[in-house]
Amino acid sequence: MRQQLERLGPGAVEDYDGFREYSRRQYEIVDRGYFKEGLDTFWQFIKFYGLRGARGLDYTGTMAGGIAKRVRDPYLRDIFEYFLSMWVRRPTTRRAL
Q1: CA-to-CA distance for 20 and 54, rounded, in angstroms?
Q2: Out of 17, 74, 80, 90, which residue is the most buried by the measure of CB atoms under 10 Å away?
Q3: Is residue 62 helix, strand or coil?
Q4: Which pLDDT band holds residue 90 (cuts at 50, 70, 90)?
């Protein structure tokens, strides 16, 4: 996998690793409340997690924006956005949370 990423250009490996880490952190936070508890609104999240527990949660950006912010290589960005479009109808307007 690293060899393919290195062919994309400088920074592709770091961007890939950074985006995976960002995604993992988001999932771990959301898993506890959204998937296991059924939380659905901003205020339910705040009540469940508290201000400290919700820290690190990216609820201000869109899914596509999270990719664009963390992945510089346009080809790698397109790959992530392609898979995102399989799950979300409008990834450029759908909130990251």
Answers
A1: 19
A2: 80
A3: strand
A4: low
| pTM for this predicted structure | 0.74
Q: Which residues pair with 95 in a beta bridge?
A: 62
Amino acid in the structure at residue 41: T
Phi-psi domain of 38 (left: phi exceeds 0; alpha: psi -120 through 50; beta: other): left
Residues whose CB falls within 8 Å of the CB of residue 96, separated by 6 or more in sequence, listed in order:
26, 58, 59, 60, 61, 62, 63, 65, 66
Please say whether the beta carbons of 56 and 31 come within 8 A.
Answer: no
* Distances from the Cα of 48 to the Cα of 4, 24, 27, 40, 59, angstroms: 41, 20, 16, 11, 15
pLDDT at 14: 94
Domains of the chain: which residue ranges? 2-87
